[in-house]
Amino acid sequence: MKRKKLLDTYAILAWLQDEPSAPKVAAILEGAGEGKAELLMSLINVGELYYILRRSLTAIEVMAILDQILDLPVRVVPVTEQLTWQAAEIKASNPLSYADSFAVAAAKQEDAAVVTGDPEFKRVGEMVELEWIGKC
To answer: Model's pTM, two decimal places?
Structure first.
């Protein structure tokens, strides 16, 4: 059975912006392309990626980037009523952004590790496995 990994917005942004953790994300993407892992991303985090990129790019430029990302071996986890309630419960009891709460809920639902370097996730490390790509 393939290992499942859920990419947080932090991971995709690090890769897109060629940040220090970009090679780690590139290796994860390559591994998925070789069938070593199944990559996931919450639809809410795709939306988060859109609005972050949209602050500095045109809508057409952002959609071109998203098209490239969606061509990667990444399955987008849809937002269901059940996932929404799980994310809301996670948000209610943890100091996370709402988008990060969806990443955690989707990772739990899919039994996947969250690939991130966002320090907010350290607060929920007991709730979901983390694959850390950040500095510490």
So the answer is: 0.93
DSSP 61-98: HHHHHHHHHHTSSEEEEPP-HHHHHHHHHHHHHSS--H
Q: Which of 1, 87, 2, 19 minimizes the C-alpha distance to 10?
A: 19
CATH number of 3-132: 3.40.50.1010
- CB neighbours of residue 36 within 10 Å: 12
Domain borders along the chain are 3-132
Over the stretch 53-72, which tens digit does the pLDDT of each residue have?
Answer: 999 999 999 999 999 988 89
Residues 6+ apart with CB under 8 A from 57: 65
